[in-house]
Amino acid sequence: MRWESGRRSSNVEDRRNVRLSGKTKGGGIVIIIVALVGMYFGIDPRIILQQGSQLTAPQQQQTNVPTSPEQDSLADFVSVVLADTEDTWIQLFTSSKLQYKEPKLVLFSGSVNSACGFAQAAMGPFYCPGDQKVYIDLSFYRELRDKLGAPGDFAQAYVIAHEVGHHVQNLLGISDKVHQAKASVSDSQYNQLSVRLELQADCFAGLWANHAEKARQILEQGDIDEALNAASMIGDDRLQMQSKGYVTPDSFTHGSSEQRIRWFSTGFETGSFSQCDTFNTKSL
Known about the structure:
Number of domains: 1
Helix content: 40-55%
Strand order of the largest sheet: 1-4-8-7
Number of helices: 10
Number of strands: 8
Structural class: alpha/beta
Shape: globular
Distance between the termini: 29 Å
Order of helices and strands: EEHHEHEEEEEHHHHHHH
Radius of gyration: 18 Å
Oligomer: single chain
């Protein structure tokens, strides 16, 4: 991916030197939830962190832990990708006579306090609608490469673009409608709505790649393959098979590998916002 010459975003909050101290009431429950449900990036943190109101928030302490050159390079990369999503979505919203409110992106190490509750790195990157911020511990990229088998800078960019896709859904009121439906549908029906929400965020990530390439020629050979490989590696079916040895489709919350590939590809190939309507299609 051609990113070094790109614009850096002013919307990055670097909290990597902030450490949370003290015990959290109910923290063990949250750790279990994020370990089982939070793989991998995208699920609405209001579901994962619904215990947040029962927690005693840990205290924040500023430290002077040095960051590595590798981490600083990743932070620079993330800032460029975020800026590129800003440029793309501002243009798309403006063309629809809408105003795009840029999200903040928070870099953290280990754990973090958000408007959605206390979160640990184990849950992976997430978007919090409560404060309209994307949260990421950069160590996730090492896990993405080494444990999930999804290397490459464009796979990393896909992670950011997917989370920004959730921000777009929040601005348009889509995520609120899905969250409000939880009280009136069964668990399996809500899981299906969650899958549609996640697949739309994948489509929005592909849509970003399409428009960014047309406007700024960011893609290098193999970049799209990196994104498609990442989408495949984090499908619910693949992750369930790896962790449990069998697959239960009714419990899917993100979509299968094939579905995630298909919807990212739809966004990238068409570049059309209307083609990302995962809620009014019978076939995912």
